[in-house]
Structure formats: C-alpha cells, structure tokens
Design goal:
The protein is an alpha/beta fold and about 110 residues long. The protein contains 4 helices and 5 strands. The strands form 2 sheets. A 3-stranded parallel beta sheet has the order 1-5-4, with helices on both faces. The protein is globular and about 40 Å long. The chain starts with a helix and ends with a helix.
Length: about 110
Amino acid sequence: MNLGTLATIAAEAPPNLLHVCFDNGAHASTGAQPTITDRVRLDEVARAAGYRFAGRVETRAALAAEAPRFLGREGPAFLLVRIALGPPGPPAPRIPHAPEAMTARLRRALGTGR
C-alpha cells in the first residue's frame, strides 16, 4: 500500500471503511526485506492523516479484545495488527479469490453478514 492512500482515505472519510493492516515487518513477496515499521508507526501516520480512529494490537488476546469495538466504529478507522514473519522461502502464490469473495468470507467468519 502506498502511504498516500492513508491521506486519500482520510480526506474522503468514508464512514463504512474499516482498514486493517497486517504488519509482519517485511516485504515478504520480494524476499523479506525489512520495512520501516519498526521505526514508523503506521497507526500514528493514519491518525495524523485524519482517520477517525487509529489503533494497534500486538497480540492475539489484544486483537480478540479490540475486534468487537473496532467493527462497531464509524470509518475511516485503521487497525494495525502486528503479526510474525512466516518461515523463509519463496513467496506464496497470489491469492486466487476476488476481493468481494474475501470480504464475504471475512464477514461470515465474524458473524456480521452474508
């Protein structure tokens, strides 16, 4: 994602946008080079850009506690979820699902829709 996207989303202020960023600290698809997120907090960048809410969780327990509150927020809202870097090796294949199908699967898993 391009950082300019955060400012564009904040400026447009879509009330139905809940933005979740899973951060493993690496550009995994190009060889696991480190990102700058150990020094630049993307949640603070989103807050500075003008998101209505910007938060961060670093454990499964924190995510479980924050998820219901986050899903009830008015957008644009940003949640950074720190995750572990996966095992070394070639990047995984591209995800074969359309964005709409992934959205529907997530909603079903969360119990919030079709």
